[in-house]
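Preliminary data (for renewal application), uridine-5'-diphosphate complex.
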Amino acid sequence: MTVRFRRVLLKVSGEALMGGQGFGIDVAVADRIAMDIRDARALGVEISVVIGGGNIFRGVAVASKGGDRVTGDHMGMLATVINALALRTSLTKIGVDAIVLSAIAMPEICESFSQRAALAHAAAGRVVIFAGGTGNPFFTTDSAAALRAAEMGANALFKGTQVDGIYSADPKHHPDAERYDTLTHDEVLNRGLAVMDVTAVALARENRIPIVVFSIHEEGEFSRILTGGGRSTIVSD
Ligand code: UDP
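Predicted structure:
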């Protein structure tokens, strides 16, 4: 089957892993996302993943209560490692070879990130899960996703969200919000559309990487979009 993109970086937010819970990881949801990744790989698409940590911790939570932002961000980055291990577990259970590469060295737990290692693992057919964000405070895992997409030479950055694309306003609170099928990176930035942070969109624009925004909760949607169907907003220049 023909696919639209051969090499894809998938961003999964921590919130996505939370499912209906208020905190943490719903293993059933992690398992389902793992199955979507397996099915997309079966189409011949090379997939790597950047995972967020918001279901466990966000740095601003510390900063907003008078604590040190950098420490808060360290806690957030550690949260992404927990999520990465959960997703690897879900992939391994269904026979998908996956590896976690962390931007922060913790050799007893997982390999450290380097572009060389990431490309080698991907070439060996593994799903590479990037943990630890960019490894720096004051960044987000969306920015990490754009960065790793550029480093991997990805043809597209798939951003799995709670809804089926980009809207002019949050459709959960504004039922009359306009939904877009296509946008340019400039339009996303100029209109201040809250889909990814500015750093992430700017990095994708600079490297001419399309961003495909879709619902991570629609089972099978990842593969449908890869084969030309499904619902998404495509951001490209
Ligand atoms: N974080 C960071 N640097 C990075 C990526 C993440 O400091 O490069 C921290 C930051 O505190 C952030 C938390 O990790 O709030 C979790 O990441 P994020 O909020 O992007 O997760 P998501 O919203 O995707 O669940």
